[in-house]
Structure formats: C-alpha cells, structure tokens
Amino acid sequence: MSLSSTPPRQVQIGDAASFVGTTPRAIRHYHQIGLLPEPERGSDGRRRYGYEDMIRLLWIRKMADAGIALDDIRAAFDGTAPAGAGADHDIAGVLGRLEKTLGAREAELQLQQAAVQRMRTRGSRAGLLSDLVTDRLATLPEGFLRQSDLDSLLVIERIFGPLGAAINVTRHLAMATHPSLREESDRVEAAEEALDDTVAVDDPRVAQVAAERHAFDLALDAVIESSGLAQDDEALCDSWEALHPDPADEGQDEAARGLGEGARVMSAVEAVGKMPYDFSPARVRCMELAVELAAHEPPAP
User: Fold this and answer.
1) pLDDT above 80: residue 71
2) What pLDDT score was predicted for residue 230?
3) What's the CA gap between 217 and 27, in Å, rounded?
4) Which residue in 86, 100, 210, 215 has the fewest CB atoms around it within 10 Å?
C-alpha cells in the first residue's frame, strides 16, 4: 500500500458513513439513542470521527447485519470501551435470544444465522468476520489473538475483503509458533507508537525504527516461507480465484460472504481518505521509509 497520501486523523460524517457502509442519517440516529458517543466538533461545527469512533461504527454495523437490535447492541456496549472485549460477554444473552428466532426465517436470513453461530463458536465478535477469516483464526491458540489484532482484521476485511484479511492471519499463525517473533513485534510496535507528535520527522529515531520494522518483516516472512504457510496462502488464493472467477460479480458475492448488504471492497487509495488513523507525521514517515526499504530488498533466491 502506498503511503504517498497521509491518512487523516479525523474525518467528517460523510466519509465515516462511506467507509463503514452506512449513511450519515444512521450515524446521527446512533448518537440520538446513545449507541455512539457524540464526537468532538471542528472549528466549523461539524462532527469529526477518529479511529476509535470508526472501530465502534464497524462493530455496530456488523452486529446490526447479524440481526441484533440496536437496543441490544447499546446494552452490550454500555460500560465498556468501544473496542473492549468485555462487550462480548454482555452480548451472549442477546445472541441466545436472536438464535431462537432465526430458525423460523427464510433463506434471506441465513447469513445472520451463520454469523451468530460463528460468534458462539469463537466466543467473541471474531465470529462476525467472514468464514474464510474465522476458519483460519480457529487454528490459533486460545487467547493468542488480542482485541487490537481483531480490530485490525476488521479494518483489513473492510478494505481488502475476506481474502486479504485471511492472508493477514498468516502473520499471527507464524508468530503463534515463534514466541520470540511476537515479542519482537510488540517491541517494534511500541517503538513506532513512541514516534508521537513530539518527535520530528527527521529525527534519527524515525529511520532507526523503520529499519527495525523492515528487519522484523523479513524475519517474519522467512518463518512464513520455511514453515509452509506461504504455500498455504497460495493454495488459499487459488481456491478463492476458482470460486470467484468473474470480478464483475464480486460485489454480489461480497454480500453473500457476510460483509453485509451495501458494503463493498474499496481500493487502498480510497480507504486512506476515509479511515482515520491517529499517526503523527514522524510515524507516517517511518512507515514510508519501511516501505522504501522493502521495495529495495533484493528478491529471494
């Protein structure tokens, strides 16, 4: 993904609605019923939505697509952080009531029933992701995946579709079998987060952290290659292409795969302007340098 354009830290309601796959009117309704806290407003008096707001909106959309009533979604979120795992325990009772009604519905509700069943199996909101993603997540050790990891997969699936998110799971599969890689990943992420607004873009730490990110990615790729996970990814892509040979039908297939009616896979360039990330200029520059290092890496023999 090119980082030539810096993603905004906050977006207006129209871009927020477009990214999530809903409408500004629906978001305003979420504010009115207390489902989504009112965000801060800019100098022009318009609402501004940041990363945490978007994560909550994406979960709300997923839950609503699964047939969960807005009142029940609000009850599930009450008293928890927008992306907190505690909401999953509160929603268990809601899922139980919803599952009893799904059996009486016709084929158009089968997607909702499948989403609820996946949530029951996974024991968390991970079940709201597509089958392709949750099937791969099921092979991870219990408790290995963190809420922040799940949030990232939610965003990746929204941008790149189920296949893109399923391929990203490979990174977690590799780290699950190599604890030292997980430790190094945590260390590099902490170093990146330390590149806040107090750090200048030309600070030597920016290039240093970019080099550390590049080195980690090389080590992770080597494990993925040597462990056979790369071959698994290739087989997954081949299987996907066999099932979806016509790109023109992708929009229709997408709804059937569980992304929800009206949602669609968007280009990375389009997503950059709609999904806010609270990255400082120094951190954005670090990401750009890491991409440049990867581009100049000689191909593997």
Assistant:
1) yes
2) 95
3) 38
4) 100
Burial classification of residue 24, based on how many CB atoms lie within 10 Å of its CB (0-12 exposed, 13-18 middle, 19 or more buried): middle
Structure tokens at 230: 């790369």
| 152: nearest Cα among 138, 172, 135, 132 | 172
CB-hemisphere CA count at 13 Å for 155? 20
User: Is pLDDT larger for residue 148 or for residue 80?
Assistant: 148
Query: Considering only CA atoms, which of 63, 50, 64 is closest in space to residue 19?
Result: 50
Q: Which amino acid is at 181?
A: L
The number of beta carbons lying within 10 Å of the beta carbon of residue 135 is 14
Q: Which residue has the tokens 């965000």?
A: 39
As a whole number of angstroms, the distance between CA 144 and CA 151 comes to 14
4-35, pLDDT tens digit by residue? 577 888 999 999 999 999 999 999 999 999 99
pLDDT score, position 263: 54
Q: At what angle do helices 179-193 and 147-177 cross, to 10 degrees?
A: 140
Inter-residue contact 55 to 278 (CB < 8 Å):
no
Token pair of 114 as six digits: 């499948």
Alpha-helical regions (H) of the chain: 13-20, 24-32, 51-65, 70-77, 87-90, 92-102, 110-122, 131-137, 147-177, 179-193, 204-226, 229-243, 250-254, 268-272, 281-295
Predicted pLDDT at 142: 85
Element (H, E) at 125: none
What is the pLDDT averaged over residues 164-177? 95
**Measured between alpha carbons, how far is 192 from 209 in angstroms, rounded to an integer?**
7
Copy the structure tokens of residue 162.
């189920």
Pair of tokens at residue 204:
């030597």
φ, ψ for residue 11, nearest 5 deg: -130, 160
Q: Global pTM?
A: 0.73
pLDDT at residue number 258: 46
- Per the CB < 8 A criterion, the answer to whether 126 and 147 are in contact is no
